[in-house]
Design goal:
single chain, 264 residues, Lambda Exonuclease, Chain A, 10 strands, 17% strand, YqaJ viral recombinase domain-containing protein, YqaJ_viral_recombinase, NF-kappa-B_Signaling_Reg, Restrct_endonuc-II-like
């Protein structure tokens, strides 16, 4: 059955298929990824470094890593893979790929600045403000490390899964930490944010590639991109860009992995 799914499905987000009651987790009404997504030109050499897994194992991995950076398993499993937070820099990179870049992409350590630390601390309050902004029409759920068995060398850790009516999507929070320090109004701080233009996420920014990767891997087709300054927030619903993913991002990411992770 799995083989037929891999043969017939294209590696793009698909409509959510209802799961039997026994398959549901206690805290999340769907399991991620929602589909085993595939692309026919993915060569078997991409499934090395112990990345291959079944859909059941992928569901268990996501459920067991919802603490994200506080989970040892989360760190270990993501270190084997290209992760969505790096997709933009990989796809857009024009400079030569040097050892420093490879160490940052494949290493298991991350630089954490003061502003980044505040962003982590602010995530939960920002999500609460987002729920208030949506006037309670959404329910949010923690999310762990998503890996799709179709292309298991890629991974993503969305900030939240969002339920709105009978639809599911993702949420990604970005905190304007410097704006909080300056105590700027949200509108003013958004005007100065380099990744926004006219209060919308720039389509050539790494954050745009990040959320596109999150959607492709999870199988969900929209993401609410939340901008928060520690006091107020705004959100933009970003749809999945199939052409960008299929024709640009996926081939580039697989080539990068083959060249720089599959050596030897």
């Amino acid at each position: 059955m799995l083989a037929s799914v891999l043969e017939d499905a294209s590696f793009t987000p698909q409509e959510i298929v209802s799961l039997p009651e026994k398959a549901l987790t206690a805290s999340l009404p769907i399991q991620l990824p929602t589909e085993v997504l595939w692309v026919e030109h993915v060569h078997s050499t991409y499934n090395n470094n112990n990345c291959a897994l079944s859909v059941e194992e992928a569901w268990e991995l996501e459920a067991s890593t919802r603490l994200q950076s506080r989970s040892e398993v989360w760190h270990a499993e993501r270190s084997k893979r290209l992760t969505a937070s790096d997709f933009g820099e990989i796809v857009s990179r024009q400079k030569e790929v040097d050892e420093n870049f490879l160490s940052r992409v494949f290493g298991n350590t991350a630089v954490k600045t003061r502003h980044m630390s505040f962003g982590v601390e602010n995530e939960e309050p920002a999500v609460a403000r987002y729920i208030a902004l949506k006037k309670g029409s959404v329910t949010v759920y923690d999310c762990g490390l998503c890996v799709n068995p179709g292309v298991p060398v890629l991974a993503a850790s969305p900030d939240r899964v969002v339920a709105e009516g009978d639809q599911f999507g993702l949420a990604e929070v970005k905190t304007l930490a410097a704006s909080k320090e300056r105590q700027e109004p949200l509108e003013e701080s958004m005007r100065s944010a380099v990744y926004l233009k006219d209060n919308k996420l720039r389509r050539n920014h790494k954050y745009y590639y990040q959320v596109q990767g999150q959607m492709a891997i999870s199988g969900l087709v929209w993401c609410d991109f939340i901008v928060d300054n520690g006091a107020a927030c705004a959100s933009e619903r970003i749809p999945f860009d199939r052409d960008l993913w299929v024709n640009k991002m996926l081939p580039c990411l697989l080539q990068f992995y083959a060249l720089h992770k599959c050596k030897g």
